[in-house]
Amino acid sequence: MIAFLQEILRCESRTYHEQALANRLVLEMQQQGFDAAWIDQTGNALGLVRGRERGAATMLLTHLDHIDVGDTALWKHPPFAGVLEDGEIHGRGAVDIKGPLAAQLFALIGLIKAGQRPKHDVLLCCPVEEEEGGRGMEELLAKLPLETPLGLLEIGACVVGEPSGNRIMLGHRGVCRCTVRFHGRAHHASLGLHAENPHFAYAVFLERLKNLELPNHPILGRSSISPTTIHADTSSNNLTPNTITLTLDWRTTFEDGAAVRRILEQLLEGLPATFVSYDDWTGGADGVKNPGFITEPNHPLVQALHQTRDSLLGASKTGIWQFATDGRWAHKVGIPCVGFGPGAENLAHTTLERISVQQLEEHVMVLKQFLLE
Fold first, then answer.
1. CA 284 vs CA 178, 275, 278, 279: distances in Å
2. 2-172+292-372 carries CATH number 3.20.20.370
3. Any idea where the domains of the chain sit in the sequence?
4. Residue 3 CB-density burial (10 A; 0-12 exposed, 13-18 middle, 19+ buried)
5. Confidence band of 159 (pLDDT split at 50, 70, 90)
6. Which of 237, 293, 295, 310 could make an S-S bridge to 331, C-beta 3.0–4.6 Å?
7. Does the pLDDT value for residue 285 go beyond 90?
């Protein structure tokens, strides 16, 4: 497993450039005795291991792509070297998501090599474009039952392998990305016409946003709105803009599309401003509105995995992810989801990205037992 992870860390697979990794993964599954392994028309890499009993399959979900490396000078080791040091493997994608992918893969390989079969069919699912909205997962689940080389397959449960420190995760908040535009009239800066300068309306909006009380979910926690990028339609230091466009990253809990609009209208009341927002599962060039998901702690899937995990690793508490995952697409079509992955989630997307060999090994141990039972 460690050697394979180091190998695939050396295979760059930025979003929209996942084909080489998909090919390597399918080859590994074929060589290791999977009952079927293939790349679908979207580019997703998939592998199927038949279980002892027929019925709905368990999906093990990660993905193929990773984000850019940023400034390579900030990395302790080259980001695509797969360096093993002091019990940790370093590199872009180590924790998000090639480490968890390797652990899921080798849990199944471990069963095959031991002459064992999981109780139910298991589908190893590695979609494309998770980091850019999840088109791979969306298209994979657009038509169910799933078409496979071995016939149609029902999916009854999904284990999302995003990093969780091997804790059980119940879900995450949704993502709403929308834009607000503040309007004024361009004029020479020396005139000091504050009423026509959109920066002042923008400042009022930020103060209102700072004091806004957002919904607080009993499991997912509080919603949040973070201003991110800002653009003014002038490049001259002595000219005020006609418009300032602000992007908002909104992590939702209870808020549907109508609630998002009501809150924005409240924040912008009396200001020279307009906004663009979307309803669930829609979006445009400047935004998106994708709900998160939550699986109740007493759900049988959560209980079964939690029991296996704690029996092998000791007592633990459930949690939620701060980031979004492709689990939302499975939840959308009615597939129960639970999170469980090796690695520290706070290392994802950073120049410190690395994963613990011990956590990888512990994950394999738990997942093998869970799939057997």
1. 9, 13, 8, 11
2. no
3. 2-172+292-372, 174-290
4. exposed
5. very high
6. 293
7. no
